[in-house]
Amino acid sequence: MPISLSAYAAVAFTVISWASAFPMIRVALRELAPIPLAAARFAIAAVLVVAWLAWKRPPRPSPSDALRIFLCGLAGIALYNFTLNTGQQTVSPGAAAFIVNIAPILTALIALVVLKERFTIWGWIGTIVSFSGIAVIASGQPAGLTFGAGTTFILGSAICTASYFVLQKPLVAKYGAMPCAAYTMLTGALLLSPWLPGAASALTTASYATIGAVVALAVFPAALGYATWTFALGYFGAARASNFLYLIAPVATALAFLFTGDVPGSQTLAGGALAIAGVVIVNTRGRN
Predict the structure, then answer these.
(1) Rg (CA), the chain
(2) Which of 25, 42, 68, 171 is the most buried (most CB within 10 A)?
(3) Buried b (16+ CB within 10 A) or exposed e, 107-129
């Protein structure tokens, strides 16, 4: 297969696998609690990660970088999956995907404070548009945006993702994208390991659908999705490749309909369109 076709195939696989996480989480939550689900998912992913590390033998992180990798695993894996899984107990997969998709805006806001990056007026307009979209989405979900509602947990997962993006930036420049993803997933799996016995107990009586969802979550979004995304980044570059990520929320909405029969409401579709529009504005015109 020509390299260009391989790159587009890698993008398609990444988008579909990452989008599939949202409906698969909803399926697995029928029989697993949020944290045990995350523990089981990343315990399986950790087996693949350890095999990859043993095969590739990338440079080990220095002691000075170990704390940053720990924080990446805490924010990007443990806390992200706790908040996302908890929120998806009440929030539809499509709505969750649209809310999580505003992570690039939150990343820019964190960089504004931490890294002193500059925002243009368009950046603030895009931010307002996206958060207006979140409010519209929340209006169609149980309890709206009240504290402790599912949508606030999903918003928390987007904040975790944004924090992870900022934390990993210097690590990717130093070690590469795949080793950083591997070390982060392994750290997250270790942080979630205290809940692994409960997950194993629940899985012994779980249905084949739940077990299949957990395994799929571990293999496709958590492991293979990062590998294909790294390949796509190498071909398209970060700026161009990131445009494909706008497809994740619409694809997740379609997959949720196929897997769980979830039909998106008008608030989800309208709010999702606003949220994505705001992200596009910020990514294209929002920063100097």
Answers:
(1) 18
(2) 42
(3) bbbbbeeeeeeebeeebeebbeb
Q: What is the mean pLDDT of the chain?
A: 91
13 Cβ contact partners less than 8 Å away, ≥ 6 residues apart: 224, 225, 228
Q: How far is CA 202 from CA 18, 40, 188, 209, 260, in A?
A: 25, 10, 20, 13, 21
Amino acid at 109: L
Q: What is the pLDDT of residues 164-204, one digit of tens each?
A: 988 998 898 899 989 999 999 999 999 999 999 999 999 99
Q: Which positions ≥6 away from 2 have C-beta within 8 Å? A: none
What whole-number distance in Å separates Cα of residue 100 and Cα of residue 165? 13
Contact of 190 with 13, CB cutoff 8 Å: no
pLDDT (average), residues 48-72:
94
Note the pLDDT tens digit of each residue in 103-146.
888 888 888 887 677 778 988 899 999 999 999 998 888 877 77
Tokens of 245: 């990520």
What pLDDT, in 10s, does the model give residues 204-257? 999 999 999 999 999 999 889 988 988 888 888 776 777 888 899 999 999 999
- Supply the range of the domain harboring residue 96: 3-285
CA distance to 175, 183, 220, per residue, from 211 (Å): 34, 25, 14
Number of folded domains in the chain? 1
Residue 168's contacts (CB-CB under 8 Å, 6 or more residues apart) are: 68, 72, 76, 180, 184
